[in-house]
Amino acid sequence: MRPIEVMKFLRQFTVLVQRNLRLIWNDKMLLGSLILQAPFMVAVIKMVVDPNCFTSNLVNVGSRTALFILSAMAAFMGTLNSYREICKERDIILREASVGVNLLAVVLSKAFVLLLIEVVQAGILAFGFVHVVHIPQNHLLFETNVEIFVTVLLMLFASSASGLLVSAIFKSGETGILVVLVLMIGQVVFSGIMFTLTGVSSTIASIIVCRWGMGALGASTDLNSRLAWLKAGFDGPMYDATVANLLNCWQMLGLIAGVCILAAWLVLQINFDRKKS
């Protein structure tokens, strides 16, 4: 892109971000749901998770379940944050594109605003979790609490990016919600928590946010040491408490987010080209 085009793109991106923030601020119902989601999830964690599941002398699978609850919540929240973001404005977006608004700027502005919101949600969810559950400090890259925050944020953002893709594909939130439900079920089934994944199921798991989130959370909390007594039925390498495993999980979450955002832009561009022709 030439410098003039870059400046035009950045100007459009800034205006679109401001507009998206203003729309959220003016929609009190949406704003309230975004604010209350994370505190509600923390309250649920407090009700169902054993605070001593990581520190009890009796090693049990409660620690693994606690991390799965956290990762599933993050994946579900991110998708629900975004699955209507594009489809509810589809006609406006395509009409503005016809007068020169860059569709990539539109998608990136949506993703950026979601990221800002999810920084706050991740902070509440992650630090609420470590306040409720006594997490041993493993210190792979940072303090374990900070690593959990980064993982939750990446999960929220990756799942919201997949929600943006759903929103770009379908013309209404009512239609898209069916796919969202399928995605949520997939987060559970292919997370590697309930079943041992092999063959095709293992391949599908490679694009599942919950699988990589669990891997990162397991690495940060040294989950393998909590499950060593079981000796079977779990994917040990998935939870290796190593910097390499943690970074790989983070990279995969970032890759999923990037691919979904680009795919959402391509879908919008194809729809616009069809409408224009």
Structural class estimated from helices and strands = mainly alpha
Spell out the helices and strands N to C: HHHHHHHHHHH
Mean pLDDT: 84
Count of alpha/pi helices = 11
In angstroms, what separates the terminal alpha carbons?
25 Å
Relative helix content: over 70%
Care to count the β-strands? 0
* Approximate shape: elongated
Radius of gyration: 20 Å
Largest sheet, strands/sense/barrel: none
Low-confidence segments, given as residue ranges, are: none
* Fraction of residues in β-strands: under 5%
Structure description:
Keywords: Membrane, Transmembrane, Transmembrane helix. Residues 11-200 form the ABC-2 type transporter transmembrane domain. This is ABC transporter permease. The protein has 277 residues and is mainly alpha-helical. Helix content is 74%, strand content 0%. α3 (62-82) packs antiparallel against α7 (173-189), α3 packs across α9 and α5 packs antiparallel against α6 (144-169). The two termini are 25 Å apart. The mean pLDDT is 84.
